Amino acid sequence: MPPDDSPAPPPCIPAEFVRYAVALEEAELAWGYVHGRLTAEDAVRLAFLRTCDLRPSAAGFARIQRQGPDASALGAVCRELLNEDAGQADAAGRIWEYLAAAWRAARPETGGPGPDVDQLDLGRREFLLQRAAAGRGMNWRNSSALLSTDRPEEVDAAFERGEELVGVAVIGLALAHPDAAAILPRVAQALERARDAADSGLRHQGIVALAHTARLHGTVDRRCLDLLRGCHRGNEADTDIWGYVAHRRLPMWLWRHGVGERLRWLLRDRWRG
């Protein structure tokens, strides 16, 4: 048989990369599955995540999610979505060109041509930053949706717009993002804005986000500690930082509070015994 010179199919891009790189729209997710850029499992996973981001206004994503990874049913629904939004379907492939380039750039060990830096910058601006700035990536009227926030750029844009529920999104980022280095600067921004505006609600949300970060990641930074010092003692962040961060990394004022609370607990326990 003659050798097969047909081009290799494009590689699938993992959902865990896509979810942080762009804010997908329904037709774009459908295009990605129909054209082999996503596995069935990853298409369903991304549909679930976008449903969480946008609920309750995420009907197309919910339709994809309901199919599960059944290839025939999933393919049929994705093609229906593309037919329903033919205008956007024509342009949906552009985001996958960007994602393919970004995925290659994230894996230089695979070889091949180097990334086009300008293409990567333009794609990030168009498919992530501009959508975040316009509020298209999340449902900013729904607290439950914001508790699934996993893109720091969404939080940055919300601070710029002065979103009322930005503190909820900071908590969501602390719960959903895998990297404390992306979370802590946004927690600090919430605490700073709360301090400057004397906003007790935002201050408490920043404290809760800092507590989650300490509990889930076992770390804190100096900027957040300095801001926390200006808050009332005995809050959630005091407790979780003392409980989950190495004590050698903590300042003396938190030592005084943590040791004092422990001694008070021991004395109460002895008195009750």
Poorly predicted spans = none
Query: How much is the average pLDDT?
Result: 90
Helical run tally: 15
Largest sheet: none
Strand content: under 5%
Elements, N to C (H/E): HHHHHHHHHHHHHHH
Q: How big is the Rg?
A: 23 Å
Count all strands and give the number. 0
Descriptive account of the structure:
The structure is a single chain. The protein is mainly α and 273 residues long. The chain folds into 2 domains: 15-133, no CATH class; 143-272. It contains 15 helices and no strands. It is elongated and about 65 Å long. The termini are far apart. The relative contact order is 0.07.
Keywords for this structure?
single chain, 273 residues, mainly alpha, 2 domains, 15 helices, 0% strand, elongated
Provide the fold topology:
Blueprint: H1 15-21, H2 26-34, H3 40-54, H4 59-67, H5 71-84, H6 86-105, H7 117-133, H8 143-146, H9 152-161, H10 166-176, H11 180-197, H12 200-217, H13 222-229, H14 236-244, H15 252-272
